[in-house]
Design goal:
The complex is a heterotrimer. By secondary structure, chain A is α/β, with parallel strands linked by helices. Chain A has a single domain (2-176), classed as Pyruvate-ferredoxin Oxidoreductase, domain 3, CATH 3.40.920.10. Chain A is 40% helix and 21% strand. Chain A has a six-stranded mixed β-sheet with strand order 2-3-1-4-5-6, with helices on both faces. In chain A, helix 1 packs across helix 5. Chain A is globular, with a radius of gyration of 15 Å. Chain B has helices at residues 24-38, 56-59, 72-82, 94-100, 102-111, 151-154, 160-164, 181-199, 214-217, 221-235; strands spanning 44-48, 63-66, 87-93, 116-121, 170-177, 204-210, 239-243. Chain B has a seven-stranded mixed β-sheet, sandwiched between helices. In chain B, helix 8 (181-199) links the parallel strand 5 (170-177) and strand 6. Chain C folds into two domains: 5-196 and 208-236, 3-Layer(aba) Sandwich (Rossmann fold), CATH 3.40.50.970; 241-349, Rossmann fold, CATH 3.40.50.920. Chain C has helices at residues 9-19, 35-43, 57-69, 80-95, 122-126, 144-161, 171-175, 216-236, 257-271, 289-298, 312-320, 339-349, and strands spanning 5-8, 24-27, 50-53, 74-78, 100-106, 138-139, 164-170, 177-180, 208-209, 240-243, 250-253, 276-281, 283-285, 301-306, 326-330. Chain C has a seven-stranded mixed β-sheet with strand order 3-2-4-5-7-6-13, sandwiched between helices. In chain C, strands 10-12-11-14-15 form a five-stranded mixed β-sheet, with helices on both faces. In chain C, strands 1-8 form a two-stranded antiparallel ribbon. In chain C, helix 1 (9-19) runs parallel beside helix 2 (35-43) and helix 9 (257-271) crosses helix 12 (339-349). Chain C is globular. Chain C is built from twelve helices and 15 strands. The chains are: A alpha/beta, B alpha/beta, C alpha/beta. The interface between B and C is large, with 35 and 39 residues.
Chain lengths: 177, 252, 354
């Protein structure tokens, strides 16, 4: 098994955390993992992305050229990463913020109204969790329980209160997949 | 026969390389006397600069480190942070402290580093052959100000203790002059006080010694002493500029 | 076995230092290593250590000098432009024979350059870096776990030779997260005493930390002593890793994160029938000359891949001594080479492959 994922969005959409939870969950399931962020001025409100690899083999390059999956949370992110996705790969689109067609007919395209669902749940900031839930539901890269375990083990204390809400968001995302 | 003078224990039995009439030897001796009197020879670490006093590590019977040009306050910071119970002092000239090492001295004072700085201001670079220092007097001729320091071109001399006095971390700041016995006694008192400030952990302490450089000034030793008194003292006023204890604690 | 945790390279390196008894850290902010000092500022007070943000890299390295001379296990970190500023101090540390660990999370240069991963500080790292006739051991990790292990070893190597040791990562090592475990736990009281340290001359003759030797013969003597250490390092400290070189017709040489990209390329090449092997220097000084010399005897060619425009390739050529062609391929300025590019180049150099 090898799943190479690029997760991208605006700074503040929680794409880094999404990637870290996925990498942590992969690690807890005994897989080899890496998480590689974009860094620098990009972090300051512009676009942000991270490369996550979950693999049963040791990870060679942590830098992904042709992802199996791209999770795109904003339009500029889709425009940048949709063309890079491997033929037959998965493109997970935050359809609340992205109306435009990705222009790829050779991909499995999963449209998730992540922000809309997050708002329904009462917190727009958990759109990333909806997307993660949808990704896990569609690919089965890791188990949903392990994502929850990763939240419990890695989220700072002040964010632990969000776990029930995050879990709800994950489930709503998974239902869409 | 009565013993009236002897070499302090903290001063090594080694002939010094300093020029005739240079006051480095006096300052070395004062430091050694203070170390003896406070009985801290086994607890003191000194830092030698780059400059004429670079060999200071040979002249004291204590642990010494030699630092890069201007970096003695950073080196002292490293030592004191590892050995907070020990006494640490730097010995720095005006080129070292007031030119290449301005960032290091200002920030050590800002942090209130608990070590003592012995600052030798002789208004010139000695070891490299008499070039202009930041403390060179206006009009003073040096190897690199052959027509005399011109304020419009090279600025005015830097008053280090007054500058550092703006920083609350500086607990003790004094300027002394080594041009007669009475002033030398005052110098020793200031030096002793700076070590006591360190002992009490009150913050950064620095004593500026107005010193001579007969060789590079091109003067006889006695004329050099006179020049300190008549030319330097009016621009660099003597006295204790800051004593945090007497002022009733640190000002924020 | 300790539990694996997912950690950023910069933070893992900091924790590695603490786990082997490093209690003093002096640094100055610069991207992409900022998480390292930030982590130290949080963690060191918990273990009665000292973190200090210096006024400059110049001051930071001189604080390291003072702390090392006082006998502390001490560390600093920076990135390329900051490492340039530290060179004065590193030269003094080498000349005064003081142990410490210096981490360079390399970014692209020259000048202010960029902040993305680069390997263009290879020359500076492996040739001493500052003025004078000296070297520092250079350890180049390819993963976060290896960054942890090598950082731990770096402190021991530094103490063993009384010499600064450089850990040379790049932005990728510093920024990425990977699972790590910390296999050692050493506290400062378990470290051997440093009898040469200036910690107060109580009951012994004064110790002097110094690199000045005005007499040429004395300075030559110091240099010859230093050289003896470097020779000893060359005998005892060379580290490298090989992959599939036994039957290889083509040898790829790369260090650090580039070696991982090269590994992807080599796997692709094997799939199309090219017999490709990898030599990965882990110590850049001392350089693994012998294994490259041996490989050069039967390889059709060696291809060195770097995130620079050709620095380590000079050492590879010196090692191969003309026994086979040594080619170079690199990207620079923070551009990371892609496995496909390397494969294409391999095929081209091999005449279309098989």
């Amino acid at each position: 098994m090898k799943q190479e994922v690029i997760i991208a969005g605006f700074g503040g959409q929680g794409v880094m955390l999404l990637g870290q939870l996925l990498a942590n969950a992969g690690m807890y399931e005994g897989e080899n993992v890496s998480w590689m962020p974009s860094y620098g001025p990009e972090m300051r409100g512009g676009t942000a992305n991270c490369h996550v690899i979950v693999s049963s083999e040791p990870v060679a390059s942590p830098y992904i050229v042709e992802p199996d999956t791209a999770i795109v949370m904003s339009l500029p992110s889709m425009e940048k990463f949709a063309p890079q996705v491997k033929k037959g790969g998965l493109l997970l689109i935050n359809s609340t913020l992205i109306e435009k067609d990705p222009g790829r007919s050779d991909l499995d395209i999963l449209k998730v109204p992540a922000n809309k669902i997050a708002n329904e749940l009462g917190n727009t900031r958990i759109a990333n969790m909806v997307a993660l839930g949808a990704f896990v539901g569609r690919t089965g890269t890791v188990k949903m329980e392990t994502i929850i375990e990763a939240m419990e083990k890695t989220l700072p204390k002040r964010h632990q209160d969000f776990i029930p809400l995050n879990t709800e968001a994950l489930k709503r995302g998974a239902e869409l997949a | 026969m009565k013993l009236v003078a002897k070499r302090p224990k903290a001063l090594a039995e080694k002939p010094m390389h300093y020029c005739p009439g240079c006051t480095h030897g006096i300052t070395h001796r004062l430091i050694a006397e203070v170390i003896d009197e406070m009985d801290i020879q086994e607890k003191t670490i000194g830092i030698a600069p780059v400059g004429c006093a670079v060999f200071a590590y040979d002249y004291f019977n204590i642990d010494m480190q030699q630092a890069a040009h201007g970096r003695a306050p950073a080196v002292a910071t490293g030592i004191k942070r590892v050995l907070p119970e020990n006494f640490v002092f730097t010995y720095q000239g005006d080129g070292d402290l007031a030119s290449i090492g301005t960032a290091e001295i200002v920030h050590a004072a800002m942090r209130g580093e608990k070590f003592t700085v012995v600052f030798i201001n002789n208004a010139i670079y000695g070891m490299t052959g008499g070039q202009m220092a930041p403390t060179t007097m206006v009009g003073q001729k040096t190897a690199t100000s052959p027509y005399g320091r011109e304020a419009a071109h090279a600025g005015y001399p830097m008053r280090v203790v007054e500058m550092l006095a703006t920083l609350p971390g500086a607990a003790y700041l004094a300027r002394v002059g080594l041009f007669n016995n009475r002033e030398i006694k005052k110098a020793k008192k200031a030096l002793r006080r700076s070590f006591e400030i360190q002992e009490k952990g009150l913050g950064f302490s620095l004593v500026e010694f107005l010193s001579t450089c007969p060789t590079n000034w091109g003067m006889a030793p006695l004329d050099a002493l006179k020049w300190v008194e008549e030319e330097m003292v009016p621009y660099y006023p003597l006295g204790v500029i800051r004593d945090i204890e007497e002022e009733g604690g640190p000002k924020k | 076995m300790t539990e694996k945790i997912l950690m950023k390279g910069n933070e893992a390196i900091a924790e590695a230092g603490i786990r082997v008894g490093c209690r003093y850290f002096f640094g100055y902010p610069i991207t992409p290593q900022n998480e390292l000092p930030a982590y130290m500022s949080r963690r060191l007070p918990e273990v009665q250590g000292t973190f200090l943000q210096a006024e400059s890299e110049v001051a930071a390295i001189n604080m390291v000098y003072g702390a090392a001379g006082a006998g502390g296990r001490v560390m600093t970190s920076s990135s390329s432009p900051g490492i340039s500023l530290k060179q004065e101090g590193i030269s003094y540390l080498a000349g005064s024979e003081l142990p410490c660990v210096i981490v360079n999370i390399t970014r692209g240069g020259p000048g202010l350059g960029g902040i993305q991963p680069a390997q263009s500080d290879y020359f500076q790292a492996t040739r001493g870096g500052g003025h004078g006739d000296y070297y520092t051991p250079v350890l180049a990790p390819q993963s976060v776990q290896e960054a942890v292990d090598l950082t731990m070893d770096a402190f021991d190597i530094a103490d063993k030779y009384r010499n600064p040791v450089l850990v040379l990562g790049d932005g990728m090592i510093g920024q990425m997260m990977e699972p790590v475990e910390f296999k050692k736990e050493i506290t400062p009281d378990q470290l051997p005493e440093k009898k040469w340290a200036t910690n107060g001359a109580a009951g012994r003759k004064p110790n002097i930390i110094n690199s000045l030797r005005l007499q040429p013969e004395k300075l030559e003597e110091l240099n010859l002593k230093l050289q003896e250490k470097y020779m000893a390092m060359k005998k005892a400290e060379v580290r490298y890793e090989t992959d599939n070189i036994e039957d290889a017709e083509y040898i790829l040489v790369a260090f650090g994160t580039t070696a991982r990209i090269v590994k992807s390329a080599a796997d692709m090449a094997r799939e199309v029938g090219m017999k490709v092997g990898i030599i990965r220097p882990i110590t850049l000084f001392p350089f693994p000359e012998d294994v490259i010399a041996k490989a050069s005897e039967k390889a059709r060619f060696i291809l060195t891949v770097e995130m620079s425009l050709g620095q380590m390739v000079e050492d590879v050529r010196l090692s191969a001594k003309g026994r086979c062609p040594v080619y170079f391929q690199g990207r620079t300025g923070g551009v990371v080479p892609k496995p496909g590019e390397i494969l294409d180049n391999l095929k081209r150099l091999a005449g279309g492959g098989k």
